[in-house]
Fold:
Amino acid sequence: MSMKKDKTEGDIMVMGENKYKTLVRSGEWNAPSREQQEILALTAKLETMTKKKKGKGNEKTNKKYEWKKVAPKDLQDNKHKNGKKYHWCIKHQMWTLHKPEDCKLEGKEAPKDNNLKLTAALEVIEGDEDSVE
Structure:
């Protein structure tokens, strides 16, 4: 008689439970395989490299092009930089290579001159005061 035939269902269940508990304690139960561990490590490394690259690139780019966001005193002025002629685009609110009248930016209107609105409002108010007196 072999030992396998001598074991009852209860004995097999106890052995299975003991094996399970041993694997859980050692951290081997549901542990990723070698291939899975390698994939996890490579994924983490790729994410780290991507984050580092994004952070450095944006910082350098932002400093390099900060001048493009500084509005001129006269909106008709042009700027020459690196052998290129830049124009102030009122829709983009920055220096661009295209002329303001050639801008193709959709959905944005050129900012309206608030001083004109204020002047018009003051004229209306002053006109109303004259009619009251």
